Amino acid sequence: MFPPEVLKTVAIYRLPSSGNKVYPATPSFTVTAAFLPLDRKNHALEGGVYNDPHELYLDPTANIEVTDKVVINTVDYYVKHKFSATFGGLPHIRVTISKDA
Predict the structure, then answer these.
(1) What does DSSP assign to residue 84?
(2) Which domains are assigned to the chain?
């Protein structure tokens, strides 16, 4: 669905549900996702102030949540918004990410 040059390996880090609220040292899991810059229209529609905003398109079965930390090419991003499109001919999950926690 996406050209190979936008597909990236994404390491996803999930905060523990209890105890010390620190991201783990190793990723909770790793997925392949399309990594694209967030366009101005979508940025305006979502609101918020994002630092280096991008979006990821993932398989609809991917386990990703708002507040997860994602690492792409050694750069840390944080999930700000999640939209699940589990309908239609191309089901997917779209998340907006930013360098700000």
Answers:
(1) E
(2) 4-98 (2.40.10.370)
Question: Which 3 state secondary structure label does DSSP give 46?
Answer: helix
Strand partners, 55: 36, 96
From the number of C-beta atoms within 10 Å of its C-beta (0-12, 13-18, 19+), residue 7 rates as: middle
* Residue pLDDT, tens place only, 4-42: 999 999 999 999 888 788 999 999 999 999 999 986 656
Taken as a whole, the chain contains a residue count of 101
Residue of 32, 34, 75, 33 whose CA lies nearest to 52: 75
Band of the pLDDT at 74, cuts 50, 70, 90?
very high
Query: What is the C-alpha separation between 73 and 2, in angstroms, rounded?
Result: 18
Burial class (CB in 10 A: 0-12, 13-18, 19+), 96: buried
